[in-house]
Amino acid sequence: xxxxxxxxxxxxxxxxxxxxxxxxxxxxxxxxxxxxxxxxxxxxxxxxxxxxxxxxxxxxxxxxxxxxxxxxxxxxxxxxxxxxxxxxxxxxxxxxxxxxxxxxxxxxxxxxxxxxxxxxxxxxxxxxxxxxxxxxxxxxxxxxxxxxxxxxxxxxxxxxxxxxxxxxxxxxxxxxxxxxxxxxxxxxxxxxxxxxxxxxxxxxxxxxxxxxxxxxxxxxxxxxxxxxxxxxxxxxxxxxxxxxxxxxxxxxxxxxxxxxxxxxxxxxxxxxxxxxxxxxxxxxxxxxxxxxxxxxxxxxxxxxxxxxxxxxxxxxxx
Length: 318
Fold this sequence. Notes:
Elements: H1 2-48, H2 50-56, H3 58-75, E1 84-94, H4 97-110, E2 114-121, E3 131-139, H5 143-151, E4 155-165, H6 167-192, H7 197-229, E5 230-239, H8 250-281, H9 283-300, H10 308-311
Parallel strand pairs: 1-5
Antiparallel strand pairs: 1-4, 2-3, 3-5
């Protein structure tokens, strides 16, 4: 009895399983057309809004890319040598500043460098030392050779070298440029797609901002690379002893005094001669003034009568 029951139970279980599978299949087939019909109308709006969605998410993608670049720069790839910006300063005491300036210029040209600045302070008084300062730019690989040649020009009073490691900044600039160029390429692809005018204008404005950032970072990267490739050397020159004028001998002093006296006498004589010429030229006026003064004085002089004794007749002899 039990065996017969088990045999009859198995076909019933199989039949129920088949019926359940058919029911599920029919439900799925009935729901599939409605799902396809619901999704079909939304396909066109999604394709039309694709450029706008991509441009809206561009800022987020760019921020993520910049963060990824910064993380990559922070992680750092081992470099062969650090990128250093070097600046040197040398103060020398030389016998002649004028000659040393020419020698420093020759050294800069020999080391394939340039003179960036020159200040030659010529003293107004012969008792003050002559000084000058120069600024050179030479390749970083030839900095040591340049310093050795400069220190041979005189006595070194001060020498210093400073270096700044800019390897991280250069790697960061490179990563940012790479990410911005990728963003630029993606924006160009978006602009090539068909879309509304507003979407194109938004993408064009974003592309202009990205290109402005690329130019700015590229200029900073180029300037920093040039500072790494070329080092700056500041050179200060100072004469060891102030120039003292030579004292002239006694004969020279006497001769100089005689020349000065002769010159003074000559000037005095010329002055007298000029005065005589002026007097001769104005002589008619001087003569007229003399006559007028004489007449005036004669008229002002009082007329006195002769004495009475002089007027009486002398007595006759009787």
